[in-house]
Amino acid sequence: MRYPATPGHSPGGNVLSRGFLDANGGPAGTVTFVERAGFVEVRAEVSGLEPGFHGFHIHERGLCEPDSTPPGGGEPGDFLSAGGHMQAGGRTSHPASGDLTSIHVREGGTGTLVTSSEAFTLDDLRNDGQGRAVIVHADPDNFANIPTRYSLPGGDPVPDEQTLSTGDAGARVACAVIE
């Protein structure tokens, strides 16, 4: 599903802006990226969400399809077609390029986040015309902050691959395609 631009969208300029939609197609806020000298400023305003912290990430594919399957297959869920967290410029380290600061939603269901990142550019978000999805998750992101003294059953080390790739942030509750 492709979403219409919100006012202020500037294709080819130094600003990209889009509206978030929830899985039912209802409005859930806006996200704006402004390229500055050496970094990108991110401003997200969300509404209609449960109070608390919510994981906030840029995902690899510019798709926001409710009840979709992940690119590699698997069980369907909302916005899973967006794939995993974006890695810009061939990066493979953690945190991923698309890992951003969590959004705190206040009582009443609204929240605002202003942050910045040097891990990507607007061209990385445009992704050669394919775009990227910006996802708000149901739960807080743990940023893979699990001490190495803990281990999984069987002695496997932590954080595990799921924690590294998702931040254990839970379901995807709002999505915007940036292109």
How do the strands and helices of this protein lay out in sequence?
Elements: E1 15-21, E2 27-36, E3 39-46, E4 52-54, E5 56-59, E6 103-105, E7 111-117, H1 122-126, E8 132-137, H2 161-166, E9 172-178
Antiparallel strand pairs: 1-2, 2-3, 3-7, 4-6, 5-8, 8-9
The gist of it:
The protein contains 2 helices and 9 strands, in the order βββββββαβαβ.
For the biggest sheet, the summary is: 4 strands, antiparallel
Query: With helices defined by DSSP (H or I, 4 residues minimum), what is the helix count?
Result: 2
**Mean pLDDT score:** 83
CATH superfamily: Superoxide dismutase, copper/zinc binding domain
- CATH domain topology: Immunoglobulin-like
State which percent range the strand residues make up: 25-35%
Low-confidence residue ranges: 1-12
Write down the secondary-structure element order.
EEEEEEEHEHE
Strand order of the largest sheet: 1-2-3-7
The geometry reads as globular
The separation of the N and C termini measures: 13 Å
Helix content: under 10%
Second rung of CATH, namely the architecture: Sandwich
Commentary on this structure:
This protein is mainly beta and 179 residues long. The chain has a single domain, classed as Superoxide dismutase, copper/zinc binding domain (Immunoglobulin-like, Sandwich), CATH 2.60.40.200. The chain contains 2 helices and 9 strands. The strands form 3 sheets. Strands 1-2-3-7 form a 4-stranded antiparallel sheet, with no helix packed on it. A 3-stranded antiparallel sheet has the order 5-8-9. β1 and β2 form a beta hairpin. The two termini are 13 Å apart. The N terminus is likely disordered.
